């Protein structure tokens, strides 16, 4: 009986040892799988792939201009004009009728401005050949005053009796270039007219539908989001974008109208033809930061050269524009515009360059509203909030010194230890 019990105990010990060995093998296999697990993970989405994706996205946006430009312009205008539709809703006007009223008022304003400037613009267009000849003569006068740019003067040979006619002088390459550029500009304008009409019609129709369904789109978007905090952030971002866009467009429109009136009156006082045209053109171009006033100055300089004979009279319109723009940019805009709409000049200029390169004049016009929308999104998303500081126009911040950056942080423990180290020699000296 004792022998059987001993054998049974030995068998149980063997089974236990075998179970321990299997468990140990399983544990070692699991550890080995954990060690090999990092090798089986997919590659990280590093910065090179992100850079390539960004470059590909930029070229896609550029080539899809015909499709994306009406959509983006309609969305920007919807953010600007949605508060007006919401204001009409308070008087019992439905969204469809309110959107139609707002779109009709906007179209009436655009058509009115176009009708005002169409007369002077047509007059300048009809005088384009004579203006080109005047511009050629002005360029010749400037070239003659500069030695290395002066055209070569060749005396035509005198034809003798019975001899063949003398060959005409060689053509001037500068005049040929001016004439060819004028023809190419006319051809480009004719080709772009049809595209502009189609894009404008698509933008107006899409703008109406977005304004009419803005309330429904926002409600559906909030309904899809599950988290309450995310709902609040999205709704706050949409309302903030609409409020800031409307405020920006209204204030900028008033400022640009004032600038256009000042430039138009200055041109009229100086005797420049088409004062209404130059005032309206300056007001429209002033929506494009930095580049718009520069283009307006170049056009006024050309108009001054074509209309006046003396140098002082030719540069007077440009001088007036520079003075008016300096007053507007340094005094009027900082006072009228609130601090929340003041953007970083560097970010503003880069945005105008980027969208102007992508979509031309239309892209430059929507560069500031798009940048405002991007900044609002950056302020709402916690992971992107650090980039919003580069878009805000804040006060100048002093760069800390290298010694201050390398100095270890002062905590309560380090302050207490330093205070004790300073007090210990004093206590020893007092005891002595």
Verbal overview:
- It is a single chain.
- This protein is mainly α.
- The protein has a domain of 298 residues.
- It is 78% helix and 0% strand.
- The radius of gyration is 37 Å and the shape is globular.
Which features does this protein show?
single chain, 432 residues, mainly alpha, 78% helix
SS elements, strand count? 0
What is the tally of helical segments?
A: 16
Q: What's the helical proportion of residues?
A: over 70%
Rounded average pLDDT: 77
Low-confidence stretches: 32-40
SSE pattern:
HHHHHHHHHHHHHHHH
Present the secondary structure layout:
Layout: H1 2-36, H2 47-63, H3 65-89, H4 95-126, H5 128-145, H6 173-212, H7 214-224, H8 228-270, H9 275-285, H10 291-307, H11 311-336, H12 345-365, H13 367-380, H14 385-388, H15 402-406, H16 412-431
Quick structural overview:
By secondary structure, the protein is mainly alpha-helical.
